[in-house]
Structures are given as structure tokens and as C-alpha cells.
Amino acid sequence: AVAARASDSLYLMPGDGFGGFLSIERVPLPGGVTAMIADAGRRAGVAGLVLATTSRSGSMVLVYDTRAGVLSANPATYALPAEVRSLAIGDLDEDRARDVAVVAGSQVFVVHGRAEAQGLGRLEPVSVPFAARAIAVGEFIWDRDNRVEMAIMSEDGAVHIAARGQIDTRPMTAGDVQQARLEMAKLRTEKE
């Protein structure tokens, strides 16, 4: 998938199954592209292709479910109050569904992923005490629960780390490691 900034088209180059490409196909978009991200390591939840567009009628994020194919899929759309500047993908709420972190104008939002039974995702504003400029999702701070955090760059260039809930950064003791191993062994036994 290829799109140029400000273009109102997405171009797809589907594979032919033999290492080459079929003819390029154009997908019209509802506005000019301001951001785009693909999730190559996608799991259940928010799909592998997310685009942000802006037009006279407003800004929005389009989430494509690539299992059906972008050409045949209608994207889930989420209206935003300002032009999208940055997108990132990760499991931000620990539900095993991929979420999309969005910077629109200077505000932060999360488009929560969706499990098949849950239906469409939802858009949640995230309150931060600064004007956001860009965002990344990952594990930036070690913690006992391996939580995913957002790294949000503010207008002054500072990077702020945001996470859902408390982060437990206490070092693991030998007893903690032994308990974790016992729990993992118990889970493996239950699966068998």
C-alpha cells in the first residue's frame, strides 16, 4: 500500500503469488492523507492498515481490516477534531487487540482494537498536560507486567512516557522468578 501526503488516493500493489505484483489498483479516500501506518505483526484487533485524512468536512482515521482486503473492505472511521499528525499501533489496554494511538492537532487519542465478538473499536481521548506533536508505542520502561507505554513528544521536543495504570518497576527477586515459572508451568499444563 502506498499513499502520498495530501493525496486523496491509496494505491495497492497486490502480490501475484510468484514474487511479483499484479496491476496497481487505486482506492479513493475521503480526503488528503496526513498520516499512514501499517502493522506487519498484526494480531486480532485493529487491522494492519491505518490512514488519516483531512478534508473540508473534517479529519478522520480510517482503519482497514486487511483480512477482507482493502479493496473489498469498508474501513471503520473515526472523526477527529483536528488534522492527524502521528499514528502508532500497539496493545495499549492489555486486551490482546491492537490499538491505534493518534496525535490530532495537539491532542492524543486511542482507537481501541476490537476482538471479533466485541464489534467496532471506540475512540478515547487521552488527557496530557502538554501539546503533543508525535507518538510511538512500545515497552520503554521495564516493569513487572511488561506493559506497553506511549512515548509522546511535546511541541518543545521533550518525550513523555504515558501508561495505563501504575508501573511496577521493582526488581524481580529470586522468589518472584520462581513463582512466575510455577505459574507458566501451570498454564502449560492447563492447555494440554
Morphology call: globular
Strand arrangement in the largest pleated sheet? 3-4-5-6
Share of residues in strands = 35-45%
Biggest sheet: strands, sense, closure? 4 strands, antiparallel
State the helicity in percent bands: under 10%
Q: Distance between the terminal alpha carbons, to the nearest Å?
A: 41 Å
What is the helix tally? Answer: 1
* Number of beta strands: 13
Radius of gyration: 19 Å
Order of helical and strand elements:
EEEEEEEEEEEEEH
Low-pLDDT parts are none
Q: Which structural class best describes the helix and strand composition? A: mainly beta
Mean pLDDT: 86
Care to describe what's here?
By secondary structure, this protein is mainly beta. The chain is 9% helix and 38% strand. The chain contains one helix and 13 strands, in the order E-E-E-E-E-E-E-E-E-E-E-E-E-H. It has one helix at 174-191; strands at 9-12, 25-28, 32-38, 49-55, 58-64, 76-80, 84-90, 99-104, 107-111, 123-126, 132-138, 149-154, 159-162. The strands form four sheets. Strands 3-4-5-6 form a four-stranded antiparallel sheet, with no helix packed on it. The protein has a four-stranded antiparallel sheet with strand order 7-8-9-10, with no helix packed on it. A three-stranded antiparallel sheet has the order 11-12-13, with no helix packed on it. The chain is globular and about 55 Å long. The N and C termini lie far apart (41 Å). 28% of the residues are buried.
List the helices and strands and how they pair.
Layout: E1 9-12, E2 25-28, E3 32-38, E4 49-55, E5 58-64, E6 76-80, E7 84-90, E8 99-104, E9 107-111, E10 123-126, E11 132-138, E12 149-154, E13 159-162, H1 174-191
Antiparallel strand pairs: 1-2, 3-4, 4-5, 5-6, 7-8, 8-9, 9-10, 11-12, 12-13
